[in-house]
Amino acid sequence: MPLSLDTFRTLSTATRAGLVLLALLALLPLFMRDDPFLLALFARILIFAFASLSLNLILGYGGMVSFGHALYLGLGVYGAAILSFHGVDSGWLQLLTVLAACALVGLITGSIALRTSGISFIMITLAFAQMFYFLFVSLSQYGGDDGLRLKAGSSFGAARLTDGYTLYATAFLLLCAGLYGCHRVIHSRFGTVIRAARSNERRMRALGYPTFRYRLAAYVLSACLCGIAGMLYANLTQFASPSYMSWTTSGELIVMVMLGGLGSLFGPLFGALAMLLTEEALKALTQHWMVIFGPLIVIVVLASRQGICGFCDALDRRRRQHGATTLTGETKA
Question: Which residues, at least 6 apart from 257, have a Cβ–Cβ distance to it below 8 Å?
Fold first, then answer.
């Protein structure tokens, strides 16, 4: 059903900005035919937005602060690279392998980590990620610490993801599907339980909801989505490295979610776009770009604790207050 102009105006500022941004991203390849660098940059933004979306599902809505979420990004990368190394370039087989690996690892690690909370949960997820990081460092057959080059891109019939436009279109469509699916999940009974358990898990258990199973299902779903992002990232860089599953990458995903806005639908997209574009701009200015980038993130978080989407919500509140004040003044007059 097409979105009418009147309906569009009733949406929040963050939602309108997100829809406009998606429309611009859909048209972007038309203006980048002669610039493969920009095409690769925005494909990377879409991939990390999708990975951040998966983390936002458990962090923003479920309150599960996973500091090892890059583990599943790395599993997706290596799932594609290792099969390609052995001559298997079927994208469907690679996708099935990645989903199975992420679901299995997510189920095992989640079953252990979700029995804890707070700092314990953070440290356990970090520990599991570092265990797999050192595991892949030790696999000399697949390059070890030097990494592994992707022999051939993931092939889906005539389409191969190493083609820039094919990868961009795939990442864009997956992001749109992920946003729609996340919206449906969060507003379903399942999503309601996840959000309620974040606020008061003890009360939800007293009401008879098996919150552990709900949270574990959300964790496994998040792991699988991040694994898909990893498979796309392998085709973008055409390389697999243990560094993709290091704690620094997990930290970047958390920053993207927080920068865009915790528990907001378009927050991961805003966060990935703002972080990666700012990073590239600062890299062009100075090699010491991290000295500038760190304080910028702190300033944004201090200015709006709910990130970019929180800033948009604040604008909506001010507009409603201004409208209510104006209406009250006209009534008195």
Answer: 52, 55, 56, 59, 60, 267, 268, 271
CB-CB contact of 90 with 155 (8 Å): yes
Q: How far, CA to CA in Å, does 274 sit from each of 33, 172, 294?
A: 23, 17, 13
38-66 pLDDT per residue, tens? 899 999 999 999 999 999 999 989 989 99
Q: Which two tokens stand for residue 88?
A: 């298997």
Task: Return the structure tokens found at 182.
Answer: 């996340």
Of 14, 73, 43, 47, nearest to 251 by C-alpha is 73
Distance between CA 262 and CA 282 in Å, rounded?
A: 25
- pTM exceeds 0.85, yes or no: yes
- When the pLDDT of each residue in the chain is averaged and rounded to a whole number, the result is 88
Strands 148-149 and 239-240: antiparallel
Short-list 128, 139, 150, CA closest to 250: 128
Cα distances (Å, whole numbers) of residue 72 to 10, 161, 220, 293, 333: 38, 20, 10, 26, 62
The one-character DSSP state at 148 is E
Compute and round to an integer the Cα radius of gyration of the chain.
21
